[in-house]
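WARN retry 2 of 3 for item q-0093 after timeout on previous attempt; input resubmitted unchanged.
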Amino acid sequence: MVFERGIYEVSERKLWKYVWALPEPADTVLMIGHNPGLHNFALTLADTDSVDHLPSPEGKFPTCALATFSFDGRWKDLRPGTGHLVSFIQKELV
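OK item q-0093 returned
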């Protein structure tokens, strides 16, 4: 398990660097972060079939939202537009 506190408020660019440096045996990663970095990362990662199911670039990745992506390949080979959105869940805060 890798726990990296440094990703919480970083830019999209730094999130890509963290992902590319993940150990290859890791088959699942949970990233908990903050806007705008995490929102921009999700939008950039999403393939063309997925991007319309996420909040728009002008919008906001909601608090308590969870986007789940899948892709084929190694972490270091992950590129923009190659993540398939499996689900997007948002919890309404009351």
